[in-house]
Specification:
By secondary structure, this protein is an alpha/beta fold. Helix content is 25%, strand content 24%. The longest helix is centred in the last third of the chain and has 18 residues. The chain is globular and about 40 Å long. The chain starts with 22 loop residues before the first strand and ends in an 8-residue tail after the last helix.
Length: 204
Amino acid sequence: MRTIFFILSLTLLLISCSSSNKISNSWKNPDVTIESAKFQTMAVFAMIKDEQMRRDVEEAIVSQMPNTIAVPSYKMITKEELADIDAVKQKLKERGMEGALVLSVRNVNQKTSYYSSGMYPSAYYSFGGYYNYAWNYMYDPYVYSNTNVYVDLEILIYSLKNDQLVWYGESTSVNPKGIQETISELAVSVKNQLVEDGLLDPTR
């Protein structure tokens, strides 16, 4: 099977990208190049407590990755296994996953309150470290009021071949209307930012 850089799959543009889902901040591992960030398979994680919402978000992300073998985590890892990083890693190894994309809700508020300095906790730089960190702060959805709601998201891409953070991005979604629309917009923003950060060839 030919090696595919999985982010090329994000070129599927379903709708125009709105300003509320643009990448506001990003970080690229200086040791990573386009060639070293090529993956044939990608596991997709949505760090959300509600099981149905987790499935919906993961499926929405996978639907934006048609040119690679992207697998929602819920199809590989049971709800009971999610809290055990060793079990998670073993399942990913058994399924031959080379990379992982993790979407996490950092904050939900009626105003934007999260600003990054560009420095991240040491846990972020490895898949296992961030997974345990995010698990302890997993998003628990609630009913929004009718006022403006700001959802701060963070997107992390890991190489599971060497347990290394490849790329990190932040985005704020304002009054998200639906999972598919939000993920579609976010996918376009991630693709554009990866081009700007030198991890994606804009001509391909």
